[in-house]
């Protein structure tokens, strides 16, 4: 498949704009963005609050549709795909970590991970084992049967990482993973990101954290819905 | 002091929730207003009615109106308090933030005013609607030719308004107030406000189930809010089915009582004056009150020879000669000795009654009886119509005095004749008391395969008598009851709307409370089908565990406690009811799926 082609573009945005209408004012969350991220690249996006970082991730992940422009991910023009096709695409190709509220509140840590694997079509005993292995990588094996409400913010974030990796997706989209965390917890997250870099995945992280920016192959700077050059 | 404009903004931005709370309250208040006015004009005031539905039948209607109004009001209350607890659940964060920015008393007054506004609007809209529908019904009744007792709608409405305001305000505000008091600001602002109780449910029993089922079952049953939802669902379904089934049972039972009281295929033979009088007394809605002819007039006698001739005809299946007379029945006070003196039971009440002398073995009616009917040996016992129960305090102990003679009361029957003001005693006894000689009324049942009506009518008219088919007056009476029932059935439909609205709101609100979960699931790659599956499973669980037992409880209540010897609705009717209920519950899933779709259309992080 395309996504294995070294040097090809994993993510490509052509003249992408996203406009919100609130009452009779329009907000340009993204304005004529052109961007390419090649396979295996680790890219960070920084910028002030309201610059459009979260919007950019949502559009790349197909959670939001652009108002204008074309979004290509792994060779697919996802801005034209139907909801359900997009869902199937996200499920295997993209790992998502949100800024907060990452987990289904009625499922335990392990079940949240298993859920992602079942959506991708895996079943049976071995997904339980696999979920435990993933939890071990993020250092939360003992918390497997805790509900999100019984986990700290950092622990929830790490479970979200484990879940993002569950289906071994080629692309990871991560929104401010350390923003709400204290220093020692943040280090854990940075450690996990380091591991990802070794796995040749395409990663797009929005962050202000210098420790993460340092890991990046490239850093995008955003303001007012645009990428500065 | 929080300004009113904030409160109004808050209410209008949560338009859906506000409108559904006001709507549910308005429907409950409207139903209550209508029912109370209607009940005052028809059900409760039976003795003053221009028509002559007997006290017993009126009582059944009145009881149903009463139960129904209480139920409608209860549904409204359950709805309101569940709404407000759900709303409060959604708003703990707002409350926490308001407290965090330094509001204390103001948080309280904020929600206090909000509750007041909702209660006020709901009550006003409801009462205006109730008054309107009462007037429409009155007009409808007038068009049908009935005179309706005038009630004072505005004084009733103002009492209801005050009552409704107080109760609904308390039920909206109290849950809010409680959680304002209880709420720790830090809790409200912590990332996860919803605390699940997993217990046995989560861990063991469904450990092997799919994640989708786990999500659905834990959302439906896992936390405290959802057990409240389950209880409300149970109660609402129970009330709904009580009203639907109960209404049909009441209507069917009353009709059955009347059918049995008049008899099927019974013909009346008497002088034409007596026929006019008797039929008028059997009709629930007489056009004019026919004065009693002088019943002692020998000209009204039916010759014994003719009665004997009738008895010998092969096509006469049943023959019930009667002596009828208008009398006054007096209650006889009962003096019971007690250790230091005596005790008096009863009073000096009296009633104008129609007395019927009958041969116990010949009687063609099959009334619904409490106690027993008189038999051949009962020289000094009688059976009373149900309206006389109002005149006598304790029929098992007291006596009635007629023309100076004391009688025991053997039983009471639900009697459509003379508005239930009847007494039945032995033919010979009434003959001796009144001095009347021959019967003045004969009821017959004919075998119409062996004769034709016209042949038979010929032989009747040859004796200067008239033949009258009581089926026609039975049909009119049943039609009248049907009309009464028709206007009463505004009620089940009202309740169904209220109940359905409430249930749909529950679903929508519980979905919106979990919007974040749906966002996460979508990001992980859940298709619409998966989300739909989860929501449907959740609704299904709620329906199976809350609604189905509720409906069954309602059915058991209706069939066992509502009326004496109930006539159950036909299988077809029950099937229709079940389908109706199923449609309501199906609407729930549709609504929740719709809300999930709306909720996840935009990702808000
Ligand atoms: N649903 C929405 N409706 C209206 N405006 C929105 C919506 N979502 C985002 N915006 C606007 O779009 C702009 C970009 O938002 P976005 O969340 O992408 O910013 P961000 O760079 O992620 O900021 P932060 O660092 O604070 O998370 C903001 O100005 C925001 O107000
Ligand atoms: Mg953001």
Characterization of the model:
Chain A has 229 residues and is of the alpha/beta class. Chain A has one domain (40-63, 82-227): Rossmann fold (3-Layer(aba) Sandwich), CATH 3.40.50.300. Chain A has helices at residues 53-60, 83-93, 109-119, 125-137, 153-164, 183-197, 210-213, and strands at residues 9-22, 25-38, 42-46, 68-73, 76-77, 94-97, 171-175, 202-206, 218-223, 226-228. Chain A has a 6-stranded mixed sheet. In chain A, strands 2-1-4-5 form a 4-stranded antiparallel sheet. In chain A, helix 4 crosses helix 5 (153-164). Chain B has 605 residues and is α+β, with helices and mostly antiparallel strands. Chain B folds into 3 domains: 1-190, no CATH class; 197-261 and 492-605, no CATH class; 266-469, no CATH class. Helices cover 61% and strands 13% of the residues of chain B. Chain B is built from 18 helices and 12 strands. In chain B, the strands form 2 sheets. In chain B, strands 2-5-10-7-9-8 form a 6-stranded mixed barrel. In chain B, strands 3-4 form a two-stranded antiparallel ribbon. The radius of gyration of chain B is 32 Å and the shape is elongated. The structure holds adenosine-5'-triphosphate (ATP) and magnesium ion. Adenosine-5'-triphosphate binds next to strand 1, strand 2 and helix 1 of chain A.
């Amino acid at each position: 498949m395309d996504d294995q082609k070294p040097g090809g573009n994993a993510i490509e945005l052509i003249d992408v704009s996203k406009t919100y209408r609130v009452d009779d004012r329009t907000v340009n969350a993204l304005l004529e963005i052109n961007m390419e991220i090649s396979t295996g690249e680790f890219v960070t996006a920084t910028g002030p609050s309201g610059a459009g970082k979260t919007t950019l991730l949502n559009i790349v992940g197909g959670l939001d549709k652009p108002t204008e422009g074309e979004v290509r991910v792994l060779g697919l023009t996802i801005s034209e795909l139907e909801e359900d096709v997009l869902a199937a695409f996200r499920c295997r190709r993209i790992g998502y970590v949100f800024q907060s509220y990452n987990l289904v509140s009625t499922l335990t840590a392990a079940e949240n991970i298993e859920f992602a694997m079942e959506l991708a079509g895996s079943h049976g005993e071995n997904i339980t084992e696999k979920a435990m292995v993933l939890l071990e990588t993020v250092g939360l094996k003992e918390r497997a049967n805790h509900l999100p409400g019984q986990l700290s913010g950092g622990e929830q974030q790490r479970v979200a990482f484990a879940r993002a990796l569950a289906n071994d997706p080629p692309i990871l989209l991560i929104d401010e993973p350390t923003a709400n965390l204290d220093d020692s917890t943040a280090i854990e997250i940075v450690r996990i990101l380091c591991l990802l870099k070794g796995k040749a995945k395409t990663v797009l992280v929005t962050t202000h954290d210098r420790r993460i920016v340092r890991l990046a192959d490239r850093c995008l700077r955003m303001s007012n819905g645009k990428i500065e050059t | 002091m929080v300004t009113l404009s904030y409160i109004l903004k808050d209410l209008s931005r949560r338009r859906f929730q506000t409108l559904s709370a006001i709507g549910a309250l308005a429907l409950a208040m409207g139903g209550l207003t209508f029912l109370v006015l209607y009940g005052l004009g028809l059900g409760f005031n039976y003795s003053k009615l221009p028509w002559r539905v007997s006290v017993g039948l009126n009582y059944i209607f009145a009881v149903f109106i009463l139960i129904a109004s209480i139920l409608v009001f209860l549904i409204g209350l359950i709805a309101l308090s569940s709404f407000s607890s759900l709303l409060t659940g959604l708003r703990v964060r707002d409350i926490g933030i308001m407290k965090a920015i330094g509001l204390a008393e103001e948080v309280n007054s904020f929600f206090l005013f909000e509750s007041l506004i909702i209660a006020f609007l709901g009550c006003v809209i409801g009462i205006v609607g109730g008054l309107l529908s009462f007037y429409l019904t009155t007009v409808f009744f007038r068009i049908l030719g009935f005179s309706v007792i005038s009630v004072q709608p505005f004084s009733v409405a103002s009492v209801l308004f005050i009552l409704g305001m107080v109760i609904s305000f308390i039920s909206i505000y109290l849950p809010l107030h409680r959680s304002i008091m209880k709420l720790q600001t830090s809790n409200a602002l912590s990332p996860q406000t919803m605390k699940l109780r997993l217990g046995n449910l989560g861990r063991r029993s469904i450990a092997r189930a799919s994640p989708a089922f786990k999500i659905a079952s834990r959302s439906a049953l896992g936390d405290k809010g959802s057990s409240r939802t389950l209880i409300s669902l149970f109660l609402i379904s129970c009330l709904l089915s009580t009203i639907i089934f109960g209404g049909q049972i009441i209507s069917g039972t009353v009709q059955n009582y009347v059918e049995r009281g008049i008899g099927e295929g019974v013909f009346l033979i008497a002088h034409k004056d007596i026929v006019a009088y008797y039929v008028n007394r059997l009709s629930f809605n007489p056009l004019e009150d026919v004065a009693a002819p002088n019943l002692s007039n020998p000209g009204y006698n039916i010759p014994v020879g003719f009665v004997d001739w009738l008895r010998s005809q092969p096509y006469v299946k049943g023959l019930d000669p009667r002596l009828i007379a208008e009398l006054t029945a007096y209650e006889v006070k009962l003096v019971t000795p007690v250790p230091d003196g005596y005790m008096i039971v009863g009073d000096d009440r009296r009633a104008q009654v129609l007395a019927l002398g009958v041969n116990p073995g010949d009687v063609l009616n099959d009334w619904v009886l409490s106690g027993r009917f008189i038999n051949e040996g009962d020289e000094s016992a009688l059976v009373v119509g149900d309206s006389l129960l109002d005149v006598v305090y304790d029929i098992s102990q007291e006596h009635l005095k007629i023309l100076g003679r004391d009688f025991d009361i053997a039983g009471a029957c639900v009697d459509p004749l003379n508005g239930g003001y009847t007494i039945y005693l032995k033919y010979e006894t009434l003959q001796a008391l009144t001095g009347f000689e021959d019967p003045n009324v004969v009821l017959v049942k004919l075998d119409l395969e062996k004769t034709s009506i016209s042949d038979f009518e010929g032989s009747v008219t040859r004796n200067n008598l008239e033949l009258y088919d009581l089926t026609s007056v039975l049909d009119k009476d049943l039609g009248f009851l049907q009309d009464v029932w028709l206007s009463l059935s505004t009620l089940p439909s009202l309740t169904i709307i209220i109940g359905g609205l409430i249930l749909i709101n529950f679903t929508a609100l519980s979905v919106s409370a979990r919007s974040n979960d749906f966002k996460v699931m979508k990001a992980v790659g859940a298709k619409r089908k998966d989300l739909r599956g989860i929501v449907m499973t959740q609704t299904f669980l709620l329906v199976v565990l809350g609604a189905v037992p509720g409906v069954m409880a309602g059915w058991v209540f209706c069939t066992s406690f509502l009326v004496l010897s109930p006539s159950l609705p036909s299988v077809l009717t029950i099937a229709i009811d079940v389908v109706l209920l199923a449609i309501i519950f199906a609407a729930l899933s549709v609504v929740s799926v719709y809300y999930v779709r709306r909720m996840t259309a935009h990702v808000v992080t």
